[in-house]
């Protein structure tokens, strides 16, 4: 059942690099990450690649496979023609460290800018009560495995290094939306969304939603509602007229 | 995330290693590992006022905790008011075949609910009961529905919550940084030295307390649910620093790993599938678990399929189906069915929820499993049965610690929490008890480490020579590659494959003396070959180099497991001897302790700590 697969892997570092071709034996049911591990074992012990769970749960092995941003552990070889050469290069939005590994520090810096969850007081009996239907809205965004594929395809930052300073990217917009929709959270994060995260720069092209391996509806369920809330707050006459946006309990309309 | 070095790159105190700069940091508490235990320990130490750093091999948020699926066992009594810590304690001890460190099992059962509620205060969003409280689900070996959960991605929720908490507290994190050795001043810990994976730069942490939270050892086995990180680092660091390990013969093979396609063999299929109604069948369609109910659990297990099925809706009048026996029982039963020729086409058995629950329920309760099988095996679990078989999942054995403080026995300043610590789970861990373990003992270790440091008079010293020895050893594989004219050099990846095959074939789920003897011989041969592993390429993000170094700890823990398995001449929990198939009450009073004498692993028997009478009462038969 096995066959020989040709892979073209980008090899290099911050100073430059190029594609190198490898031919490796592969087996039925394997994924791209398996083939890359075979390259490491047979031909290039020093080939840099990040991975952990190999089950689509940790979001470590993001790369661009034939130009498409994907998780290497969830990309089955059976989705390609056997004769086809599979090309893998590192995520383009982040600086290369070496081979397929990029420096994703940008994301961890943006994570620090999100104000922490701030719950209100407990119920009288000391418990926290939330309805399942209310937690599910935020739960959708908490499925995020931080693979940063959404960050990689977001064209606000993909080819615009200069925007990284003022834009947090879809990952952290949905994090803000998640907190905003959390039934217990009391903090108003609309100013953060605008001024720190730069939500106004997103022009809802939905590229992030398309690549999300967890099928999170980033644009429709998180970013657009958050934009509406920001608009609502910011005296947008149409928004106000239509009454778009959701208010937290006890929050007075601005 | 990672701060600038507090000191400019400089030698530890005086003489530099030739050609090397060294990044130096000073902390009170250094936590090694950033899974649930490490993050909780760091939060504890930080909140207690200690200058705290987290050092982890991967990026933050990628540790093994992220893969935990089912839930956190905690007797919050949200679903069954009759549940309490005593019932949980009893379940844990019985699941561990009474070999657990009773005090750890007690603390765990008592404190797990508070640790879960604390996560909620930090933003975790668990699934809810109709009353709006945290929902609790059924799992193997637990008398009541007890696992707080978020679908089947509970570990992700937990690690993200802790990660976000640690970040909001401003705790320093050194990502993609591996610790190679612990340093001591006399008997006490004085720091740790390692390297940054991204640059190959060596790093020295000067710190009087180190908390190990490095997880397990599963990478030494061929079929495993564990990632590349699980190379037994904390186990080995402890041994090399003069500490001891307990219960190393007990390795948990999770009964349900994927078996097909070959590349995903070993990937976990959550126990929640069975908790939520899934059943195991052999090739004849028989629910074979009814044939494997051990005497020890007979009184609390259903006798017929009808009773088992009724239990899902009425737990008070019916007993649990045998599919929810503890993991060791189920794994051995599956193994026996496959050996008897009643397995599935790819060498497992069938796990069927499709014929028992409707598609919407399955997708709602088990979204990750649905996704995983669909994407990786092209199997729709709402329409057909899964094929599953045992996979190396967890090591019960670990650092011998004080149960209240998690202080490593014999090494002042060293602490261990989570999977790397031993004792809590005895001979077999119940599902759901791992996540609670991380939280309860992560906090205890972090608190105790901070308190230890604040009680110290002065700072322990780091000796240059100790640091230089580590650097020298780490750089050997490069020297070898340069000098490999006539000498045969080894490939680290091939050595790893050979070790994994040895452990899988000879120290796996069923063991016997002749095979364990052979395993020890093969491990010794591999140990002789590891120094010849040559590394190509440079120091920047070179996984071949990292693996060559990891092999030392993988071989050390493998030797511990094989030696302890050879010594324990009985079958109990996660240790099954074909040549000693019975559980022996005399062995039930003994722990095996392993140490490192500088060249090899040594073994001692040690009596089990005595449980106080008020707890022992819980195990007296009342019916």
Distinctive features:
heterodimer; A: 254 residues; alpha+beta; Ubiquitin-like (UB roll); Fumarate Reductase Iron-sulfur Protein, Chain B, domain 2; 7 strands; 32% helix; disordered C terminus; B: 623 residues; FAD/NAD(P)-binding domain; 3 domains; four-stranded mixed β-sheet; disordered N terminus
Topology readout:
The complex is a heterodimer of chains A (254) and B (623).
Chain A: E1 3-13, E2 16-26, H1 32-42, E3 62-65, E4 68-71, E5 86-89, E6 96-98, E7 101-102, H2 105-112, H3 132-142, H4 149-153, H5 170-181, H6 190-196, H7 207-211, H8 218-233, H9 237-242
Parallel strand pairs in A: 1-5
Antiparallel strand pairs in A: 1-2, 3-4, 3-5, 6-7
Helix pairs in contact in A: 3-5, 5-8, 6-8
Chain B: E1 22-26, E2 29-32, H1 36-47, E3 52-55, E4 72-73, H2 85-95, H3 102-121, E5 136-137, E6 147-148, H4 154-169, E7 172-174, E8 177-185, E9 188-196, E10 202-206, E11 209-212, H5 233-240, E12 245-246, E13 251-258, H6 272-275, E14 279-281, H7 295-298, H8 305-311, H9 327-339, E15 349-352, H10 359-365, H11 367-377, E16 386-395, E17 398-399, E18 414-416, H12 433-454, H13 464-482, H14 492-506, H15 513-529, H16 543-567, E19 590-596, E20 601-607, H17 613-616
Parallel strand pairs in B: 1-10, 2-3, 2-11, 3-7, 11-18
Antiparallel strand pairs in B: 4-6, 5-6, 8-9, 9-10, 12-17, 12-19, 13-16, 14-15, 15-16, 19-20
Describe the protein in words.
- In chain A, 32% of the residues lie in helices and 15% in strands.
- Chain A contains nine helices and seven strands.
- In chain A, a hairpin with a 2-residue loop joins β3 and β4.
- The longest helix of chain A has 16 residues.
- Chain B is an alpha/beta fold and 623 residues long.
- In chain B, α1 packs parallel to α4 and α5 packs across α16.
- Chain B has 17 helices and 20 strands.
- In chain B, β9 and β10 form a beta hairpin.
- Chain B has three domains: 267 residues, FAD/NAD(P)-binding domain, CATH 3.50.50.60; 140 residues, Flavocytochrome C3, Chain A, domain 1 (Alpha-Beta Complex), CATH 3.90.700; 119 residues, Methane Monooxygenase Hydroxylase, Chain G, domain 1, CATH 1.20.58.
- The relative contact order of chain B is 0.16.
- Chain B starts with 21 loop residues before the first strand and ends in a 7-residue tail after the last helix.
- Classes of the chains: A alpha+beta (254), B alpha/beta (623).
